[in-house]
Design brief:
This protein has one domain: Beta Barrel (YmcC-like fold). The chain is 15% helix and 51% strand.
Length: 247
Amino acid sequence: MKKIFYVLAISFFPLMGKAQFCNLNKNATLVYVNSNRETNETRIDTVTVSNVNRKGDYTWVEQTLCNPAAQKQKSFYEGYNTVKFVYEPNGVTNRILIDEKWGVETMKNLKKELDSYQNSATKSNKDFDEQLANAEHQKGAIAIPLKADAAKGEKIPDGRYSLKMDYMKVSFDLSNGKYEGFEKVTVPAGTFDCLKVSYKIKANVLYLPQTQYITQWYAQGIGLVKEEIANKKKELTQTRLLVAADK
């Protein structure tokens, strides 16, 4: 996995004068209100900055979803309730959508669901873990580079991730990504100057395809402030708004 993200992080400049699009304060909290138009449900999520790890010139940040009720409703690309960022020395904040750890956790959860459905073990845990350890089954990673100097209309690099084990296969493609410029956004937590990004995610989990169009607004020093998700028909299905945040 290190090789993947060293490719993402190729520039080496001082941190002075750079601002990150995430919260670097360990134990800081962010509170969101999530609305799902398809199920007509609204949920309050509390996210904690659970880990801040500085490796050389890079800062790796993990945010963990705290409330148990929300943990049962996993987003298909959110790394099973963990949001990850890598802050580079050139001032770019990479929002990691999918990586090696995500793939391993996905396969383990799929195996549990299949075993439960069949009321038996599809494969011994030892054999399963040995296959997961084989890096040849995994390819790629997907990240959104958040940068303060992004030009409006500039393209976000495409990304692809795939993992295959026997008949179990997952793949994700990010495309049509672009920087939409900077906007003032008002949410329950206040008004923020945000970098707006949009992209398309096409997922295929156990040969069940799904497409989402995602628009997000990120504020420096905080992270995600607003998110809108639309379905394949580009109909708005979900929204997420920041309610409160530790700065």
